[in-house]
Amino acid sequence: MAELYDFPFQQPDRPDTLPEEPAGKRVRRKRRGKLDLPFLLLTLLLLAVGLVMLLSASYAIAYYETDAKAPMSYFTGQALYALFGLLALIAVSFVPLSFLRRFSFVGILASLALLLGVLLTGLRGNGAVRWIAIGERTFQPSELVKAAVVLAFADWTVRFGPKMGDFRHGVLPFLAVLGVFSFLLLQQPHLSATIIILGVGALMMYAGGTRWYWFAIAIAAVVGVVLLLRANADWVIKKAETNYAFARIAAWLDPESQKQDDGWQIIQSLYAIGSGGLLGLGLGNSRQKYLYLPEAQNDYIFSIICEELGFVGAVLILLLFAVLILRGFWLALQCKDPFNRMMVLGFTGLIAIQVFLNVGVVTNLLPSTGISLPFFSYGGTALVVQMAEVGIILSASRDIADK
Fold first, then answer.
1. Where are the domains of the chain?
2. pLDDT at 18 exceeding the cut of 70
3. What pTM value is reported for the model?
């Protein structure tokens, strides 16, 4: 009798070798199918809308920063990266995921080296050290770290199989990687990347078969810390005077008390969302982007979406994300190969986590952590890596029969 598994993603691996062909008979590779068109079209639609909204959100700050010489500088830069991202998507969509699996451990080592390189030679900006310079360009290694974690965890969960239920295999190696990466990211400091990596790591561990009670313990600990901070708001505000992380938490707890300091950004974000009303002020008519709302072209671009397109426009964009994410999870369930299944799950979960956290931050549901909105926020490294990750999902979709 075949062994049964409780979770749909935790299924036995297929044999690594195929039956031998008779001597003298030429072995022909199975031709791969077509990539998943709905997922591709949803991605391209989000990318196109994202570029339009970036142009609107960034025009004022670019005009100011360049002395009116290049008011479209953010848009042209992002459009160039979008082109690179499309090329990466196309190239990666033809790469079999079995090829990527061979480099899972190499990806972890390379990510570790990059994070150490950031701490030693990284560029400083906005009070953090997160970038490495390559000539006149910069890139953010944390984006590659996210992909490396998904790749490695997909490989490990499949290798360990039923052993994921014990602590030695299902918790310890994953916790070690997440702990080391979290420590290095917090030294930058880069709280948003830390939260995202912990989130997607937990998702893949659960899907791979790690026992539920480990997650219950972690969730209980997080809830306990949040309640403790809320109950001691005065102490948090005092600590905020000398600590970066506590300053963000204090602004989240009571932005009005710090409206001239760390609370300024979230207050302006809420003004933008509230002034948009049901139908918005109209595309290009945002007021908060005129140097009132910091990072309007980046982490807080969803606030500008709400202001210009209103509640209806914002909900439509969130629905597009929701359909994309549901389609990604559906593709994961259809994958016959366990490694492909876990990879699609991980990269789809990565998009879902970032969308949820970004919207949570701009609405002050969560503390400000600098989380970008996929396909919308300005950032070359993030966009190119996200498009390459979509390419990986599409590559897996080509091995699904009868989509």
1. 37-397
2. no
3. 0.87
